[in-house]
Q: What sequence folds into this?
């Protein structure tokens, strides 16, 4: 069986996918930018490949003999435009390297944030992108996805995109999970009343596996489990934890679209 190549294996979603692949008996080569990342993927059962996805180099040779590549790596900061260029440039570097190495299929981890949604409608894979981006992260993921599809088609690579909503589960402490943690720690006093599309990490991993085995090249697959309002999510936390916290809710229109309602809510929590 050909080896599988993985980027982002030391991250939260990538690590969960790595555990699934190794558990299924796959031999995984995992790109690692640092000694710490190399140790993490090694401990998860992968063969570490040292390299930086922004810098073509010796790591590209380790793509040889791999039939499948999962590109999960990316920056998730909301507002740092320079850092988020990693999502576009890094993705194009990986696709180009895969083309030179003869990789047959790439599964790209994109985002549900690339999908627009007009008021009163439900977005789907065919929905155009939003007119105004909620964050630099969303914009960069859209640009990366579009470039990846175009580059893969030109190189003759089958590329399938997975577009998960906010991935949640045990061990997540960053992003929108900080809202939940802030509530549990008693630090969430105010929150923006907006919807929070969520998907469990195991379901997101399953979507990647299915994209690799059954996904149609050139297509993207939206992955979402539940879309509660912040108040509904807090109510569920209240029932589960038994904690009574008073949270005041502000309407989403009070914050600019550029900030993003969910992330703006965390700014009210404080660090």
A:
């Amino acid at each position: 069986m050909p080896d599988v190549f993985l980027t982002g294996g030391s991250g939260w979603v990538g690590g969960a996918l790595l555990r699934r692949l190794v558990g299924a008996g796959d031999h995984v080569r995992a790109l690692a930018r640092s000694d710490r990342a190399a140790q993490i993927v090694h401990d998860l059962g992968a063969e570490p490949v040292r390299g930086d996805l922004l810098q073509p180099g010796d790591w590209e040779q380790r793509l040889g003999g791999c039939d499948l590549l999962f590109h999960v790596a990316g920056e998730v900061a909301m507002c740092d435009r320079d850092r988020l260029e990693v999502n576009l440039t890094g993705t194009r570097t990986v696709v180009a390297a895969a083309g030179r190495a003869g990789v047959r299929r790439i599964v790209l981890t994109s985002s549900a944030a690339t999908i627009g949604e007009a008021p009163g409608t439900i977005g789907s894979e065919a929905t155009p992108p939003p007119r105004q981006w909620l964050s630099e992260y969303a914009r960069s993921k859209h640009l990366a996805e579009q470039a990846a599809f175009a580059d893969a088609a030109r190189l003759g690579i089958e590329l399938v995109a997975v577009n998960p909503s906010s991935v949640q589960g045990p061990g997540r402490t960053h992003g929108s999970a900080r809202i939940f943690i802030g509530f549990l720690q008693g630090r969430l006093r105010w929150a923006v009343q907006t919807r929070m599309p969520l998907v469990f990490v195991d379901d997101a991993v399953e979507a990647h596996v299915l994209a690799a085995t059954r996904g149609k090249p050139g297509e993207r697959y939206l992955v979402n489990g539940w879309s509660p309002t912040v108040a509904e999510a807090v109510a569920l936390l209240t029932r589960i934890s038994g904690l009574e916290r008073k949270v005041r809710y502000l309407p989403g229109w009070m914050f600019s679209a550029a900030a993003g309602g969910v992330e703006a809510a965390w700014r009210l929590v404080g660090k």
Summary: The domain at 3-164+199-223 is CATH 3.40.50.720 (Rossmann fold). Residues 256-271 have pLDDT under 50 and may be disordered. The CA atoms of residues 10 and 41 lie 6 Å apart. The radius of gyration is 19 Å.
